[in-house]
Specification:
heterodimer; A: 385 residues; mainly alpha; ABC transporter involved in vitamin B12 uptake, BtuC; 2 domains; globular; B: 244 residues; Rossmann fold; 6-stranded mixed beta sheet
Chain lengths: 385, 244
Amino acid sequence: MTALLNGLFDGISIGSVLLLAALGLAIVFGLMGVINMAHGELMMMGAYTTFVVQNIFKPLGAPWFGLYIIVALVAAFFVTAIMGLILERGVIRYLYGRPLETLLATWGVSLILQQFVRSVSWMLVIGLSLFCVLFFGTMTLLARRRNFQRIRNWVLVILLPLSTGIAWNVATWVGGIYKLPVTQPWFGAQNVDVTAPGWLRGGLKLGASQVPYTRLFILGLTIVCILGVYTFLHRSAWGLRIRAVTQNREMSACLGIPTQTVDALTFAIGSGLAGIAGCAVSFLGSVGPNTGQNYIVDTFMVVVVGGVGKLVGSIVAALAIGIANYIIGTNALGPFVASVPFLADFFAFFANASMAKVMVFALIISFLQFKPAGMFPQKGRTVDA
Amino acid sequence: MIPTPNNPELVPMLGISGLNFYYGESHILRSIDMTVAPGQMVCLIGRNGVGKTTLLRNILGLLKPRTGTMTMAGAPITRKTPDQRARMGIGYVPQGREIIPGLTVKENLILGLEARPKKKGKATIPTLVFELFPVLKTMLERMGGDLSGGQQQQLAIARALVGEPRLLVLDEPTEGIQPSIILEIEAAVRQIIETTGISVLLVEQHLHFVRQADWYYAMQKGGIVASGPTGELSNEVIQEFLAV
C-alpha cells in the first residue's frame, strides 16, 4: 500500500510537470484552436532564459543567487510571451481557420527556433536587429504615404534584399573586427545545465522515500499557474473577452470587442505559460535545442484527452496520465496481482519507462474510441456555436 | 414631419450608396442604395436567398464590398472593422441569436457593454433591459446556451441594447420563435424606438412585424427593386416579396 501511495504522489508529481507544460497549449490549442507545433520550442526558450538569468546571478553569490529563480520565472514568461506575440502577428493570424497550414507553419517555426539557439551569437543578433530596423522601419515610414498600397509590392522587392544585404555585410564586418567574442555561439549545439538554487536541493522525507524539493516546487508552481489562469479567465474583463472571442469570433466583433487584440493577447499568455513550464523543466534535466520535442506529444495528448477547450479536463488528464505512467512504469500493481502469474508477467513486461508509455498510448487510444471528445466535452444547446 | 429615407434634408443614420458585393466572381449585391433616417424603423423584405443577410453583413463589416460607400450619421464606415462599427453605434441581433453558449446571461449582457460610448464611471447593465425582458433578471447566472429559443432572442436584443446603439440591426428576430414571444419581441422593439429614439433596420418575414416599420425596401436578385412607406404595402407586393 505504501508503494502504491508513493506511486500516487510520484504520479501527481509527473502529472504536474505535464500539466504545467500543457497549460499554455490548453489556451492556445484548447481555446483558440491553433495547432502550435512550436509550443515545445517556446518551452525550450523559457529554459534557456532561465539559464541566462542563472548566469547573470551567479557572480552575485549568496543570497542573491538563491533568488534568481523568481527573476527567471518572470523573465521566461515575458521573453516567450513576446516571442508568441511576434509569432501570432507575423504568422498565425494569417492562418486562422486553416489548421493544416498552421501545423506546417508552426512546425517550420519550431525548426527555426531550434537552429536559432544553436547559432545565436552577437553577430547574428547585430545582423537581425539591423535588418529589423532597416526593413520594418522603412516599411512603417512608407506606410504613411497615400499610395502605399499601390507601391507595396515594389517596395518589398527592393527593400527585402537591400536590408538583408546591408545587415549581412555589417554583421560580417563587425565579426571580422572583433573575431571570436562576437562570432562565437552563445549556447552552441551542446546541452547546458541549470543549477537549482540551494533551497531547492535535497528532498522531503515521506516514509521510506524522499520527494525532491524541485518536484514540490513544480507542483506548487503548477497550482499557482492554474489558479492564476483561472482567475484571469473568469474574473477579469480581458478573460471574459477571451472566452467570448474563442467561442464566437464574429459575434464578439459585432459587440465591439477588438478581436485581433484579444487573439494576440491570448496567444502571448499561452506562450508565456510555455516559458514558465520551460523554466520548471530546466531543473529536471539538462537543457538543449531539442528539449521541447520531449514534451510536445505529451502536451497535445493531455489537452485532447481532457477535452479541447476545457481547463479542468487538462488538469484531470495530466494527473491521470502522470499517475498511469508511474504506476505502470514502476510495476506498482505487481504485488497485487502476484497470485495471477499471467497478469504478473503482463505488468512486469510493461514495467519500464518506454514500455509504460506504449501502454499509456494504447489506453488513450482505447479511451478516445469511447469518448472521442475527451473526458469533459463541451455541453449545452448550442455546443457547435 | 415624419422622417423618410429619401428626405435630402436629413443626415441619415445609415447611408449606403452604390454598394456592390461579390462572392468570388458571383455578383451578389447589385448597386444597393438605401438610407435609414434617425429614429426610424426600416424593414428589408425579400424572399430567401435574395441577399438580405449578405447586405446586413456588409453593413456590419463582416463582409467587404467591392465598390460603394457606407456612412453612419455622416461619418464614413466603409473601411471600419466590425468592432469599430459596433463602437460607432451599430447594435446587431443576428439570425439564430448567436448567444455565446459557454457564458452566463449576465456575462453575455456585460459583453454588450463593450460597444457603449466611453463615459465616466463603471459601466453597468441598464435597468431598461430588465423592464423590457423581465425574464432575464431571473436567469442571470444561467448559461446562455441553456436558454430556450425565445429567451435567447430576448437576450440577444438586450445584449445589443446595453451597448446604447444608435442603429439597431435585427436579422429575422421572430424566426423559429413561438407566437406569444413574437408579440413580446414586437412590443419591445416598438418600446425601444419610442423610449430611446434609435433607428432600427429590420429583416423580417413575419407580416405583422413588417407592418410595424415606417418604411420598407424590397430586394430581389441582389438589388433593391421597390421601396416606400409600409402603410402603402399592397397585397401584390407582400405576395411577391414575403414568404407568406
